[in-house]
Write a structure and sequence with these properties.
Blueprint: H1 4-11, H2 17-21, H3 23-41, E1 54-58, H4 67-80, E2 85-89, E3 101-103, H5 109-112, H6 114-123, E4 127-129, H7 133-143, E5 148-152, E6 164-170, E7 198-202, E8 209-220, E9 228-229, E10 237-242, H8 247-256, E11 260-265, E12 285-288, H9 289-295, E13 303-312, H10 314-329, E14 333-334, E15 337-338
Parallel strand pairs: 1-5, 1-6, 2-4, 2-5, 6-7, 7-8, 10-11, 10-12, 12-13
Antiparallel strand pairs: 3-4, 8-9, 8-13, 14-15
Length: 340
């Protein structure tokens, strides 16, 4: 099993001789990123403009920050407002040969990637996955009646115009050491955050909007029993896996509920095999929902899934609703460019 991603995340938290050695490559990467963005801004590279509003939820760092729970929350929020949302996703590590791919809760995550399948399971929204976001949007609009589109990630996918950009930051990880790839975790400069419409911090925020991952629940991996409060596991000794951007966030959630955890961090989007589960005993195995969509076919014993729900600040909700209302009540506009 390759743990290089986990090692990089630790390296990117600090400044070391290795980071310094990588600074020339980071400088080159910065130049390439800035030139590419400038070409799109000047319309020298083509941008697809959707006939319905597009909301991008992303970040400027490599690794997880809590985007998926916010996408799930936003899909339900849009439904509550009376809109029909659809979702596009990259389908990272999906092995399907032909994109875009229509994704349902029953789609094999090896074909579509784990996040689109998880989103389909929780939202019930029509979802198309594929590395070409404009093609995914076009397929979504051709085959459904969506009034609003949510892009799971895609902040750097400038071939796709967007009406609202939401940047999600991780309170614990922040911007790491603040350096660009490969010397640090940044895909774009921190100044990019000044251009987004909304920022929200996953965790405690010193200022601005915050989002909590609350109401932790737990249910068996293999049957349809209703989930129960995670607090009922207080004092139990468990083994826990987490193949997410920042596995420590999941393990800390369990320990905050006074669960005794033997932690097994995995790389983000890890493709699980039965050989990953050669544990010493049959203590309960706890995992995230993102892990669960890839583990169901492995016939694990005594396996449990922990779920959480995103709870954004009321101020964030009010700000988002106001922006969406302005877009829908006016001519369709993408960052000042009127659609004709």
């Amino acid at each position: 099993m390759n743990h290089s991603t986990l090692h990089l995340q630790q390296i990117w938290r600090r400044t070391s001789w290795l980071n310094i050695l990588l600074l020339p490559l980071a400088a080159l990467f910065t130049v390439i990123v800035n030139i590419r963005r400038w070409l799109y801004q000047k319309a020298w590279l083509r941008t697809y403009i959707s006939p319905v509003p597009v909301i991008v939820i992303g970040n400027i760092t490599v690794g997880g920050s809590g985007k998926t729970p916010l996408v799930i929350w936003l899909a339900q929020h849009l439904r509550n407002l009376g809109y029909m949302p659809g979702i596009v996703s990259r389908g990272y590590r999906g092995q399907n040969r032909h994109w875009p791919l229509r994704v349902t809760a029953e789609t094999d995550p090896q074909l579509a990637g784990d996040e689109p399948v998880l989103l389909a399971k929780h939202t019930g929204c029509p979802i198309y996955a594929g590395p070409d976001r404009p093609a995914a949007i076009a397929a979504l609009l051709k085959n459904t009646s969506c009034a609003v589109i949510i892009s799971d990630d895609g902040m750097q996918h400038y071939a796709m115009a967007r009406d609202i950009e939401i940047a999600v930051l991780d309170a614990d990880y922040g911007l790491g050491n603040g350096w660009m790839l490969p010397a640090g975790p940044l895909r774009e400069s921190p100044t990019r955050l000044r251009t987004v419409d909304l920022q929200i911090v996953n965790g405690d925020a010193a200022d601005g909007y915050a989002m909590r991952l609350a109401q932790p629940r737990i249910a068996p991996l293999y049957d349809n029993e209703p989930p129960t409060d995670l607090q009922t596991w207080r004092g139990q000794a468990v083994q826990a896996i987490a193949g997410i951007g920042h596995p420590s966030r999941f393990f800390n959630l369990l320990t905050r509920h006074h669960i005794k955890v033997e932690a097994y961090p995995m790389p983000d989007h890890h493709a699980y095999q039965i050989t990953d589960f050669t544990f010493r005993d049959n203590r309960p195995l706890l995992m995230t929902e993102k892990d669960a969509v890839k583990c169901r076919q492995l016939n694990l014993t005594n396996a449990w899934v922990v779920s959480v729900q995103a709870e954004p600040d009321k101020g964030f909700i009010q700000d988002f609703d106001r922006r969406l209302k302005n877009i829908l009540n006016q001519e369709h506009v993408h960052h000042g460019q009127k659609i004709t």
